[in-house]
Amino acid sequence: MTMQPSTSGNRSIAWPSVITVISAAILIGAEVFGAAFAGGWALAILFGLNDTGAHILQAVLFGLGVLIMIAFIRAAQRVEPFTRRA
Q1: Are 82 and 18 within 8 A, CB to CB?
Q2: Are 39 and 61 in contact (CB under 8 A)?
Q3: CA 41 to CA 16: how far, in whole Å?
Q4: What is each CA distance from 7 to 10, 66, 78, in whole angstroms?
Q5: Model's pTM, two decimal places?
Q6: Alpha-helical regions (H) of 9-50
Q7: Which residue, of 8, 12, 23, 43, has the greatest Cβ tally within 10 A?
Q8: Within 10 A of 69 (CB to CB), how many other CB atoms are there?
């Protein structure tokens, strides 16, 4: 048996980093999802779609917004790690 250091031992949550990332995610999420719904509505009018088409377009743009937010949180976590060695 070899004695190797554990990668999960003695870690603590870096609350300032977590709060910073969550706050930024809330702000950016409001903009991304607001733009998704408004953009879906505007594009539906531009292309002459009915209500169902507008809702489908909004759902597609909402899904794109979810992907954008996942990418943002992952990138932010690399810059502001959520844990640190105690």
Answers
A1: yes
A2: yes
A3: 38
A4: 9, 31, 17
A5: 0.77
A6: 15-47
A7: 43
A8: 15
